[in-house]
Amino acid sequence: MDPQDIIIARSLTKRYGALTAVDGISFSVRRGECFGFLGPNGAGKTTTIRMITCVSPVTDGSLAVDGMHVQLDPRAIKTILGVVPQDDNLDPELTVRQNLRAYARYFDLPRQAVEARIDEVLDLFQLAEKQKDRIESLSGGLKRRLTVARGLMNSPKILVLDEPTTGLDPQARHLVWQTLRKLRARGVTMLLPTHYMEEAANLCDRLVVLDGGRIIAEGTPHELIGRYAGQDVVEVQPTLEEKAAVLAYLEGQKGLTVEGGGDIIYIYSTGENGFNAAGLRNVAQRVSYRSANLEDVFLKLTGRGLAAE
Amino acid sequence: MTTLAVPRTVRAAWRRPDVSFLSVRVWQRNRDVFMNIWKSEAIWPLVEPLLMVVVLGFGLGDFIELDSAESYIEFFGPGIIAGYAMWIASAEACWGAFFRMDQKTFDAIISTPASVDDVATGEVMWASTRSMLSVLGNFVVLLAFGAFTSVTALLILPLAILPGLMFGAIGMCYTAVARSVSSLNYFFAVYITPQFWLAGVFVPTDAMPGWVQVIAWFMPLYHVVNIYRSLAGGDLTWTNGVDILWILVVTLGAYALALSLMRRRLVK
Predict the structure, then answer these.
(1) A298: number of CA atoms within 13 Å, CB side?
(2) Which residues of A lie closer than 8 Å to B, measured between beta carbons?
(3) Which of B14, B28, B37 sits opposite A57 (nearest CB)?
(4) Which of A10, A268, B154, B261 has its CA 20 to 30 A from that of A70?
């Protein structure tokens, strides 16, 4: 076992009756990195995370977290985890401060240390002013920040963030991202299951792309984009009349991959020199150039967008 | 690389009860919420027995003559303490716990070092605590109206833990399998309410048809009423030992079942 690796999964499998949610995946997460799990809903991201956080038993294969087996030492593993779930599960009847305190009690930390830690995480997420407010009175963005703050109460070695910035306004989102990057700089390992591309690109050192319970690609965001989507992407949004002409034009070009069954056609260049879209502008009005991103990687790998469920 | 395979036998560890002191933390969480809202909750254990004393004790009581020559309030007083202990523990283990499960509080707790068994255990302890508070409130009111004739009545207070844990555990079993909040109504309509009326709270069971007496014997509340009535009147007998044994066996069985059903509900 490489001491560098904090999580090691080998042939990890989860079956629900006849349904295989996670189909024998193997991966390793290095200490101190932010590791992303990318994929559409139903790809197996959440199930994998639930097995890592010891709330879902492993059907087959093995899974070790910080040198411990999830089947043998769930309590010890959960002691070093900070879990930020996708759904808000704060205590609506308690205040902000009481929420953090109640949560910290499950880790059996000394009382004084808890109060100091509460002040620390409240400051980190700019929530100190709200500490006496009931959860019911908080906005969605504040609740989300508090949920992330709560996950830090036990100073976890591994922080598990399920779509941490879903539903946040851009300002709050950048505050959360900034804080997470700060934590990563301090050596906290992060797991980030998401289908939000910008978030993955912003935070992840490495990631796996899941589909149908299997890993279909693995690497840094940069590597994956370079390997599967190239540098640039041309997006064409043809009208019904233009569509035939666009497809005919693309037919005659070499070194291209064309994706997209819907109203947008994505063109990836696999050649050395990229693709000159000038000719396309003669046959369609709406043609645009942009840099390739992780969404393109996914589209390329599966032939459909991440939003498609 | 060292092998990571876990032997098959170890996987059965998921089935073994796994209770720790963290169940107290679950209890503390519920206590914190209660302390935020207790004023609106504390009124019930005082008002309800008061109404009963007025209507049944002073009103109906004048028309009732018991074989034992005791006043009617001395008869039904200990019974309603037991009856409300059942209601409060069941309501907390059903409505209360179901809402907490529904708002994903349990999911939040089991992502910390606490286990599902800690959650279920803490919930049963909390249901029992609420039930004991209810017994205390009822006791004070009934004491003021002279419902107790023996000093052994004081034992009703500590022994409130018996109906508390028993109905808490039974309620948790139903909560673990209830599909929705509204389906909890079945439990109260079919299981709890009949006990309140048939288990000897208001009318001695031996004044009822034989088949009702048989049903009553199988009702958990019947045995609690027996114990409380004996304590209130100072006439404990060996049959109260049977009542206690009955309660302990059912409590342990329901608790074991509650753990396994909650695990099935929360661990997927």
Answers:
(1) 25
(2) 1-2, 8, 10, 16, 50, 53, 55-57, 62-64, 69, 71-72, 74-76, 78-79, 81, 83, 85, 87-94, 98, 101-103, 105-108, 154
(3) B14
(4) B261
Count of pairs with CB atoms under 8 A, one residue in A, one in B: 94
| CB contact (8 A) between residue B29 and residue A90 | no
B104, B108, B113 ranked by CB distance to A78: nearest: B113
Residues A267 and A234 sit within 8 Å (Cβ to Cβ) = yes
Query: Checking DSSP bridges between strand A287-291 and strand A232-236, what pairing results, if any?
Result: antiparallel
Contact between A56 and B268 using a beta-carbon 8 Å cutoff: yes
Chain B residues in contact with A89 by the CB 8 A cut-off are 103-105, 107-108
Q: pLDDT for A265-279, tens place per residue? A: 888 876 555 666 677
- Give the best residue of A22, A52, A89 to mutate against chain B (max B CB count within 10 A): A89
The widest CA-to-CA distance across chain A, in whole angstroms, is 72
Nearest CA in chain B to A154: B112
The residues pairing with A233 across neighbouring beta strands, listed in sequence order, are: A268, A290
Statement: residue A308 has pLDDT above 50:
no
Residue B6 carries which DSSP code?
P
Contacts of A272 (CB under 8 A, 6+ apart): none
* Nearest Cα residue to B96 out of B138, B135, B129, B50: B129
Which sign, positive or negative, has the C-alpha torsion B64, B66, B71, B75? negative
- Single pTM value for the model: 0.87
- d(CA A134, CA A94) in angstroms, rounded, equals 6
Q: In whole angstroms, how far apart are CA B136 and each of B62, B91, B240? A: 27, 17, 22
Largest Cα separation within chain B, whole Å, is: 85
Q: Which residues of A touch B266 (CB under 8 A)?
A: 55
Q: Position A249: which residue type?
A: Y
Cα B73 from Cα A80, distance rounded (Å)? 58
User: Between the CA atoms of B211, B213, B215 and B216, what dihedral angle is there, to the nearest 10 degrees?
Assistant: 160
- Helices B161-177 and B238-266, interaxial angle, to 10°? 30
Contacts of A107 in chain B (CB under 8 A): 112-113
Place A94 in a pLDDT band, splitting at 50, 70 and 90.
very high
pLDDT in tens, B208-238: 899 999 999 999 999 999 999 999 999 999 9
Residue B236 vs residues A222, B152, B231, B264: alpha-carbon distances, Å? 80, 9, 6, 41
- Looking at the predicted complex, does its ipTM rise above 0.90? no
Place of tokens 């919930």: B123
